[in-house]
Design goal:
Main location: membrane
Strand order of the largest sheet: 7-5-6-4-1-2-3-8
Largest sheet: 8 strands, mixed
Number of strands: 8
CATH architecture of the largest domain: Alpha-Beta Complex
Pfam families: Glycos_transf_2 (PF00535)
GO molecular function: glycosyltransferase activity
Keywords: Cell membrane, Glycosyltransferase, Membrane, Transferase, Transmembrane, Transmembrane helix
Bound molecules: uridine-5'-diphosphate, magnesium ion
InterPro entries: Glyco_trans_2-like, Glycosyltransferase_2, Nucleotide-diphossugar_trans
């Protein structure tokens, strides 16, 4: 069992919630979360709400909420930086002994918080919440997500656990480790996995969104997947050496075959079609490999500028740690 803080105060637990155009669901979010927080008297909570450049009334609603409930603190980013950056901002500002990132749309059920805390008290630094039933997600999303995890884990040095999102509990130790990772393009699921620590898993059934629409279109998910793979694997860069090698061996065999055939059967004039196919095929392969190089070089370029991951416009009720 975890002890309370030395001065006898119960531990502070930070819940980090990114909000992007979620005004319609904020009331329900509060109504669902409040009784759960109230039912845990042995811990104190702070709820860090990050407004990720919303264009609706999310910020106003969040500020009204923090006026009502002193546990809610608000960070306003200067524009929309994306969920990974918003999460990073919230985690940076969190001062709890444990931190729980959770989505604002109630797809990550807050009822699980008690179970997450129980596992943390048993001594785990990371408690993962795994979706056992994803029928709430579309068929396309489920299959592409599963394909992504398979490909990613096959070619990366770190294993991102399948069907585990950002919803989890991390101890202060794990959070401090996470904050040491300096990269600016942050694929959080990968970073969470990279830091390691003693972890355990609890299962839950994922619901559909309480209100509003998903912020991740097909194209955004595709780019997110590429971010994930390029952040943790260099296999796509290296594979061209082997493809090139195999192509060279095949070409040599084919060349020997043509020489032999010409020696035996004489000069053979036709062959435009096969020539064209070979040129187009190799040309396309070269373009793809240049594209892959571009993905990595683009990321090196972005990292080399060392721009901050996010810019805070204003903090409301959150201590400035910088
Ligand atoms: N989100 C964000 N910034 C963005 C996109 C999303 O802060 O640019 C937040 C969003 O408000 C929600 C969470 O990230 O709290 C998850 O987003 P969403 O539900 O759209 O993703 P999905 O569950 O469909 O993967
Ligand atoms: Mg969602």
């Amino acid at each position: 069992m975890r002890p309370t803080t030395p001065c006898g105060q119960p531990d502070l637990v930070s819940i980090v919630v990114p909000f992007f155009n979620e005004a319609d669901g904020i009331q329900l979010f509060h109504q669902t979360l409040r009784p759960i927080l109230d039912s845990q008297p042995q811990v104190r909570f702070e709820v860090i709400c990050v407004d990720d450049g919303s264009q609706d009334h999310t910020l106003e609603q969040l500020l009204a909420l923090s006026g009502l409930d002193g546990r809610f603190r608000v960070i306003e980013l200067s524009r929309n930086f994306g969920k990974e950056a918003a999460l990073t901002a919230g985690i940076d500002m969190a001062s709890g002994e444990a931190v729980i990132p959770i989505d604002a749309d109630l797809q990550d059920p807050p009822e699980l918080i008690a179970a997450l805390l129980a596992e943390w008290r048993r001594g785990f630094d990371v408690v993962l919440a795994r979706r056992v039933d994803r029928t709430a997600d579309s068929f396309l999303k489920r299959t592409t997500a599963s394909l992504f995890y398979k490909v990613h884990n096959q070619i990366s040095t770190i294993q991102v656990p399948q069907d585990v999102g950002d919803y989890r509990l991390m101890s202060r130790n794990a959070i401090e480790a996470l904050k040491q990772l300096p990269e600016n393009q942050r694929f959080m699921k990968g970073l969470f996995a990279w830091i390691g620590f003693r972890s355990t898993t609890i299962d839950y059934v994922r619901h559909t969104r309480a209100s509003g629409k998903t912020k991740f279109s097909g194209w955004r998910l595709w780019n997110f997947a590429i971010d994930g793979i390029t952040s943790f694997s260099t296999a796509p860069l290296k594979v061209w050496t082997y493809i090139g090698g195999a192509g060279a061996v095949l070409s040599l065999c084919y060349a020997s075959f043509i020489v032999l055939r010409t020696l035996i059967l004489g000069v053979d004039v036709p062959g435009f079609a096969s020539l064209l196919v070979a040129i187009l095929f190799l040309g396309s392969l070269q373009l793809i490999s240049i594209g892959v190089l571009g993905e990595y070089i683009g990321r090196i370029y972005l990292e080399s500028k060392q721009r901050p991951t996010y810019i805070v416009r204003q903090r409301y009720g959150v201590a400035d740690e910088s």
